[in-house]
Structure formats: structure tokens, C-alpha cells
Amino acid sequence: MDALFCIPMLSVFLIPVLSSYSTTLNFLFFYMTWSTLVLSHTPLRVEMFGTIAVRLIFYALPSIIMFLFDILTPSASVVIKAQGATGLPGGKRRRNIRVRELKIAGWSLLNLFMSIMLQWVIEALCVKAFKMRSTVKVALKLPMPYEMVRDLILGLLAREALTYGIHRYALHESNSILTKFHHFWYHQLHAPFPLSAHYDHPLTYLLSNFIPTYLPAVMFRFHMLTYLIYLVIISVEETFAYSGYTVMPTNFFLVGIARRMDMHLLTYGEGNFGPWGIMDWIFKTTVGDAELIDDATDDAEEREREARAKRAYEAAQKKSNANVRPSKVQAQSVRGRR
User: Fold this and answer.
1) Mind listing the pLDDT tens digit for each residue in 118-148?
2) What is the pLDDT, as a whole number, of residue 92?
């Protein structure tokens, strides 16, 4: 873990943001920092600790803080929830957080950790076992700005296409076991809330989240810096798009993605299969007009009421059975005395 918090690694993220020097000096300091990082660590360590740092700073920590905000102060959180109380981790129950919500948060973080470990295994096999070049380019030479922009556009468009195709045809329009896993896990959520971006059965998660995210970087062999920026964009998108909040850093972009995620869950996966909506617009699978949102929200609330009624009935039945057993024992003991 020393590499994760060492000065060169942290400087890669902090110098462009916190420095007050001129652009030329900033670039010089950044290049010196990058060179120190690349020369003092193996490419595999640079890639893995860079990936962990981005995921930790831009997804895991903000999502955990938002999740705690939702469950500890639901009265304040519900004010900025797009779906009201339905968008809280505990739904209408607000403060009555069950083990299920904590399991969802735990599985989300576990899936994220699993994806990072799988990336490490793939890189280790390529470099050490098969003596191939690394899937992500870690080099002293920095990419030109136009190369970074080109790769980012290509990578994000490839991710959109892969996510749409896998999500729609493999997880919704098929009868495979993965479809059942996806519906039984992810589509049991009543609405997106913080940390739910990475929640799904591990197999369907790897198929629908890890592959569309990692494969474009392998296809276009991103430079490590390009890959870090690519991960930052995706991590920020996942953090806010699945938060359920109406307040976003960029209302122009993130709010639209967030409402698309809401509608995908509220309509039981009738549309909005891609994260940005480009493929949904092309193939006319966009859902989300105002009337449909109201109907879907009402339907979600009705499902929650039915689930509460079912749990209350089961609890009453167990209590009734518990009361019947002692009375039977007493009756048997009376008959024994006679």
C-alpha cells in the first residue's frame, strides 16, 4: 500500500488541481512526478495502484459517504431524492435499515474489489506468464492531447455500445441463467441509491460492468494517463448517476443519466439499457416521460406496501404458531395428570 499513498502517486492527481504555478511549470512538475513514478515502480504496480486510487477517491469514498448520509439522516436526504422516500436505501421505512441494504452495499464494494483483482490477474498473465505487452501502456512518454481525446471518445463510445448490447440482449432478452441472476439481484432494488452502481450477481456484474469498462482500454491500448482519466469519468458518473439525488455537480449531463437509471429500475428493465442513452436513442428503447415516471413510482410504492404486508403476515403467523405450541404442551400435561 506504500505505492498507493506515496508522493509521486498522489502528485499525479493533486498537482494539476492544487498547484498555482504557470502552465509550463505545472507540466514540468507533472512530468517529473510521472517519470519518478514510472521509474520507481513496475508497470503492473503503476497500473494497479493507479486504478485503486481512482476507484477509491472518485467512487468508493463518495458513495460510502452518501450511503451513510441516506441511512443516518433520511429526513434531510429525502428532500433531494428524485423518487422521494422510495429512493432511500430503506425505502419508506427510512430508519429501519435491514441487513439486506447493508448486504447490497457490501456486495457492491466486493464486486468492485473483484474487478480490480481480475484486472491484476489479466495483466499479470499477459506480462509475466505469456511474455506479452501490457494491456494498458505504461511509458515515460506522455500522450499528446489529441491522442487522449481521441482515445477517450472511442473508449466511451465502445463502452456505451458494449453495455447496451450485453445489458439488453444477454441480461433482458434471453432465458439464460444470467438473466435470472440479474433480475433476482439487481432488479430487486426499488430505486438506485449510493453504492448500488456495482450491485449485481458477481457473474452478471463481470459481464455487464467490468467487460464494457475494461475491454475498450484493452482494444485501443490506452496510455496509463488516458486510462486514469477514463476511469475518473466512469467513476464520477457511477457515483452520481446511482445516487438518486436531484442535486448534481453537472446538471446538464449527470442528471439525465441519473433519471435514466431510475427509469430502468422503475420500469423493470423495459428500456434505458445504455449508460448515456446514445444506443437507446438509436434503437428506440428510451423510456422516461413524466407520466410513465409517476406510474412507475406508484407501482414501486405498491410493491413495497405488498412486501411489508407479506412480512407482517408472516411475523403474525410465526407468533401465532409460537403461542399455539405452549397451549398444546399445557393440554398434554393436564391430560397426563388425569
Assistant:
1) 999 999 999 888 888 889 999 888 889 899 9
2) 62
- Give the CA dihedral 286, 291, 296, 299, nearest 10 degrees: -160
Q: Give the per-residue pLDDT at 78.
A: 87
Instruction: Identify the residue whose cell numbers are 411489508.
Output: 308
SS (H, E, C) the chain: CCCCCCHHHHHHHHHHHHCCCCHHHHHHHHHHHHHHHHHHCCHHHHHHHHHHHHHHHHHHHHHHHHHHHHHHCHHHHHHHECCHHHHCCCHHHCCCCCHHHHHHHHHHHHHHHHHHHHHHHHHHHHHHHCCCCCCCECCCCCCCHHHHHHHHHHHHHHHHHHHHHHHHHHCCCCCCHHHHHHHHHHHHCCCCCCCCCCCCCHHHHHHHHHHHHHHHHHHCCCEHHHHHHHHHHHHHHHHHHCCCECCCCCCCCHHHHHHHHHHHHHCCCCCCCCCCCHHHHHHCCCCCCHHHHHHHHHHHHHHHHHHHHHHHHHHHHHHHHHHHHHHHHHHHHHHHHC
Q: Residue 99: its pLDDT value, please?
A: 80
What values do phi and psi take at 159, rounded to 5? -60, -40
248 band by pLDDT with thresholds 50, 70 and 90:
confident
Q: Is 0.90 topped by the overall pTM?
A: no
CA distance 314 to 322: 12
CB 216 within 8 A of CB 162: yes
Query: In which residue are the cell numbers 457473474 written?
Result: 203
Length of the chain as a residue count: 338
**Partners of 81 in the β-ladder:** 245
